[in-house]
Amino acid sequence: MTAHSPHAFKGANLDAARRDAAHFINGEFTQGATGKSWINRSPLDNSVIGNVPEGGKAEIDAAVRAAKAALHGPWGRMTVAERTDMLAAVADEINRRFDDFLAAECLDTGKPMSLASHIDIPRGAANFKMFADTVKGISTETFTMPTPDGKGALNYALRKPKGVIAVISPWNLPLLLMTWKVGPALACGNTVIVKPSEETPLTTTLLGEVMNKVGVPKGVYNVVHGLGPDSAGEYLTQHPLVNGITFTGETRTGEAIMAAAAKGVRPVSFELGGKNAGIVFADCDFDKALAGITRSVFENCGQVCLGTERVYVERPIFDRFVQALKAKAEGLKMGDPHAPGVTLGPLISAEHKAKVLSYYAKAREEGAVVVTGGGAASMGGALERGHWVQPTIWTGLPESSPIIREEIFGPCCHIQPFDTEEQVLAWANDTTYGLAASVWTTNLQRGHRMAAAVEAGLVWVNSWFLRDLRTPFGGAKQSGIGREGGVHSLEFYTELKNVCIKL
Ligand code: NAD
Q1: Which of 3, 186, 399, 484 is least crowded, fewest Cβ atoms below 10 Å from its Cβ?
Q2: Is 165 exposed, middle or buried (0-12, 13-18, 19+ CB in 10 A)?
């Protein structure tokens, strides 16, 4: 059930999407009162998109208080049917304004329109629809119990909204990952304050227009822009009226947010970093494995938490696989999001490009064989000012190398040959992360065996990023806390209340 869109993107105009961002607090767009802002630039060519106001303590406080008040206003009084109808209307309105969302997302991230029109924007809409459908169908448990007077008692559970939810989201799939949290939070009757990534403020802001158009009550959905430490992100996690914090981003940021959440014992839901393994056995369907690994390494320019940066290939097909993946990498087309056939965009920022290139340099220092790529990409023209790097493949490094141990979050992978299932399993699990893995084999028993033994929240066998939104999504080890998706999201976004009635 990965969302696919029938939409063409001929009407999405990047230049028309250039605009200043605004906070969205209590149903109103505002620049806030800090007087501080930054310039949002496109990763494509470093051109100016617009200004983004930096929220401070006052903006966060206003947004949290609006969210708190909305819990007890019309939103809190709605029936589940009324609320979920409204969220279905939000999904419809995103689809109606599909090209506006598409242009804004591609301008902010630089990703190809062919990708965002199939994944980011349709999933943004689907997240509201799916969670609206999920909460309509939930039931809770009941227990009858004996009592000394013989009349007994009846217990039943009620699911209540948790309250005011802080949503802190990253830049790699901005609308998709933000609505993956806002959708279930609102479906369960909570109210939210979103602090989007400073790199990608546009679609979060645009969603404010959708909320007003559909008639979502004031204060239910709020947005405050800003940075992390000493800025809106940190102030939001510290606000005492916030009842829960849901965060997607780096593991190190998760540690800082967890420390903030400790004050007031606020619950957290975390989707964090990964260093995912793709394991290719000699008995795989070679072409399918190659296509899957190609996608998992290079899609979204490698800026996908579920992406593969460690590829393990069984020795009999190692050389052939390396050469075939090299050909695939060299066949990727980089360029402007509109341009026909473009499959690869730039990295998100100059800072991230510097980080990825530092790993490219480190790989060379460590003696890696650079199979392809290994440097910045020269694009020519205006794109020369953007944050482009070459798709890169290495071999020849030991498993102890930082290239194999640390999340790079770029269009690159290291390929290691392996000889036995035990060996590859030990390598795959020798990481502090535990988000995802893919296993490529035509041996059904081996597929099951590996899926059970790999220490990760998600394992794909003979596929990658094939998502049914009702399934549990999240990371093991340092890749996350909790699971979101379908009914699993209810565990975080609701409080179960037991009612005991003496009969
Ligand atoms: P990041 O951690 O740098 O930033 C994420 C968000 O946190 C941003 O909005 C940022 O402003 C905010 N932030 C930073 N410091 C903060 C603080 N101290 N308090 C409050 N907020 C703070 O992550 P990123 O670079 O935007 O995203 C890339 C990372 O996200 C990668 O590690 C990737 O693996 C991870 N990711 C994980 C998943 C998943 O589902 N597990 C999905 C996508 C991305």
Answers
A1: 399
A2: buried
